[in-house]
Amino acid sequence: MKKLLFVFFGLFCIPLILNSQIIFSPKIDSIVNLVSTSSICKFNRELSGDTLTTIGGLPYHIISRKYNSPHNIKAAQYIFEKFQSFGLMTYYQQHNATNINVIAKKTGTKYPNQKYLITAHYDDWSTNSTDTVPGADDNASGVAAVLEAARLLANLNPEYTIEFIAFDEEEIGLYGSKGYADSSYARGDSILGVLNMDMISWDGNNDGKMSVYLNNASNTIADEFIRTVQLYNINLTCTKSYNSGGSDHYYFWQRGYKAITLIEVGSDFNPYYHTRQDTFDKFNLTYFTNITKAATATFLSWALDYKYSINHNPLASGMDISPKTVIANIHFPVPLGMGTNAPRLYYKINNSPYQYVNAFEVSGEIYKFLIPGQPQGTKVSYYIAAQDSTGTIVGTLPNGGSGTNPPGTTPPENPFVYYIWSGANFSSVTVPKIIEDLVQTKDTIYISQIGTVEDITVNLTIMHPDDGEIVFFLNKSSGSAVLSQYNGVGGQNYINTTFDDSASLGIKQGTPPFTGTFRPESYLWNLHGQEMQGYWILRIYDKAAGNQGTLVNWSLSISYSQSVSVKKEEGSIPSEYMLYQNYPNPFNPNTNIKFSIPKTDFVRIAVCDMLGREVSVLVNEVKQAGQYTVDFNASNLTSGIYFCRLTTEEFTDVKKLVLIK
User: Is residue 270 within 8 Å of 202, Cβ to Cβ?
Assistant: First the structure.
């Protein structure tokens, strides 16, 4: 373990949502049970000089593995010969005069050009000038685990290529792993995951706690390791440690590869590392064996592709009301369910119950589902579910759903959501307006409609003898966007000018009278997420005297989403069911609907028209005892009489609503 902490910050753009889960395999379980404490202890004792070994057919005592020492070179030869004795293709990788990595390889039968690595560094270090530090924990322990995994996996035929690597010169700068990662990156190697081990045998308080070093990009494989520990009932407690450096995972991160390091927790760290007292006799053998088992089980699960995954690029919100195609890659290492147990997509409209559809097209692992088109103002929630043919394994995306035969009957807590935005145009009724010199002229559009702004464009006409003298911008609450600032010097007028963030030309690229569509100088998305209701202000400043202008007209085109707000009120638990009269009533277009339930119950609140047809479902879920207020927005309904119906398992009531527009 190199005594150094790097703090690595980065941004990772991952538009594709993935649910990947290791699944239990009796085959892997039986192999993991073959991990031998006596075997890993023998490897460790020989590497750390606790006992003699044989190298090149002769007895040898590895008294140190410090870089650039003859014992370090002999340690590399020892590892090389062990790999070879297991029947693995083995070679040295040398990056400079003193740095030698030892690599053993098993080519994948299905994905030979994609690989997983299990690694550890074999060099050691001392805090003084001696070259006789044993380095039993740091890091003969990690190397022993790599050797044990190689021993057990050598006769398997993995689907992915796997490599067992002992890195050199970790202690003086991570040089061995840096050389490997750099050369892999230069070749364009596809490394799917790196499982590195560094100091895995000290557990001073015998609590079984360990750390997993990871970065954000490696979160998936870290979760797979932790899940493996749970699946195979290995007595370890894992804690994630983000962006910690100091071991051989670091340069894989720098090259964009996923990598994790297994290591002792910082609160119970080996106090003897980098000293002559780092010896085998201080090991916690149960802890050492358990981490080796967990690493072997995880690496086997990767190598044999014993995990399922569901990948999907979530649908985006927009104004398109046509049917939506959902594309998912569903990968299971075992046969998928068929017929009524085939993969499904579940969707619900607003707060109505979930419905499901099966794929309308399947090509290999690519499944295509269709969500019917919906009107503007609709919220659509959805998730994907699949199970194996035996009904023992089920996965949902997003994660968290459950239920088999058919799959995914219990939805995840946080499904995918998209909105079919509504659209509306709003024009100023207080124009034309003179643009005064040397002062700020402003004009206001008040919008009474409630909704959340998702997209916005501005159209205007301004008559002015010198466009280069004026700047104008749009304000709403705390947000603002500069539309144009002193552009078109000497030119005249903005005539039917539209400002849209998606325009191909910026306003600075236009010329007077700027007729057409342009990107504003600062993005209108600064105003996205605002509540649409309220005052929208266009502000214009003329910086020169003597030539006034006129704001002829201006308007806003807004795409907006609507969602039902259900708020639980503070206070005592009510003693009875109650549906209160809405307030205000009559209303336009918003009203509050209050209800009470004395115990946890399934609650459905629907609004129906005069013919009894449901026009909106406001609540359709289990609610805890309490009093609630629902904000109902009826902007998509016509004037008339409607009825609000509350239904629970024990109670039903109806109130009349009057909408006047």
Answer: yes
Global pTM?
0.63
Q: Is 301 helix (H, G, I), strand (E, B) or coil?
A: helix
Please state which architecture CATH assigns to domain 25-307: 3-Layer(aba) Sandwich (3.40)
Is the per-residue pLDDT at 602 higher than 90?
no
Pairing state between β 190-197 and 259-264: parallel
Q: Over the stretch 238-294, which tens digit does the pLDDT of each residue have?
A: 999 998 888 999 999 999 999 999 999 988 999 998 999 999 999 999 999 999 999
Q: Is the peptide bond before 520 cis (omega within 30 degrees of 0)?
A: no
The CATH class, in words, for 422-561 is mainly beta
Kindly report the CA angle at 56 between 199 and 106, in degrees rounded to 5? 60
Which is nearest to 385 in space by CA: 377, 394, 376?
Answer: 394
User: By CB neighbour count within 10 A (0-12 exposed, 13-18 middle, 19+ buried), where does 40 fall?
Assistant: buried
With H, G, I as helix, E, B as strand and everything else as coil, classify residue 221: helix
Residue 418 binned pLDDT confidence (cut-offs 50, 70, 90): confident
Cα–Cα nearest to 160, from 56, 304, 18: 304
For 565-659, CATH number out of 2.60.40.1930, 2.40.440.10, 3.50.50.60, 3.40.50.10780 equals 2.60.40.1930
Mean pLDDT of the 311-336 span: 91
- For residue 656 the two structure tokens come to 């009349």
Residue 266 phi/psi, 5° resolution? Answer: -65, -30
Cα separation, 151 vs 274, in Å, equals 28
pLDDT at position 364:
95
**What DSSP designation does 138 have?**
I
Where does 317-420 sit in CATH, by number? 2.60.40
Alpha helices in 102-218 (DSSP H): 141-153, 175-187
- For residue 316, give the DSSP letter: P
What DSSP letter does each residue of 503-566 carry, written as one string?
A: -SSBGGG--TT--EEEB-SS-GGGGTTSBSSEEEEEEEEE-SSS--EEEEEEEEEEEEE---EE
Residue among 250, 238, 148 nearest 194 (CA): 250
- For residue 16, what pLDDT is reported? 53
pLDDT single digits (tens) 629-658: 988 888 767 899 999 999 887 899 999 999
For the chain, the structural domain boundaries read 25-307, 317-420, 422-561, 565-659
385 CB-near residues (< 8 Å, 6+ apart):
343, 344, 345, 346, 394, 395, 396, 397, 401, 403, 406, 407, 408
Q: What is the DSSP string of 116-130?
A: EEEEEE--B--SSS-
CA dist., res. 21 & res. 393, Å (int) = 10
Coil, strand or helix at 42: helix
- Angle at CA of residue 14, ends 197 and 411, nearest 5°: 95
> Mapped to the 3 state alphabet, what secondary structure does 367-426 carry?
EEEEECCCCCCEEEEEEEEEEECCCCCEEEECCCCECCCCCCCECCCCCEEEEECEEEEE
Q: Tell me, what amino acid is at 611?
A: L
| Angle at which helices 285-303 and 219-231 cross, to 10° | 120
Say whether 565-659 and 317-420 share the same fold: yes
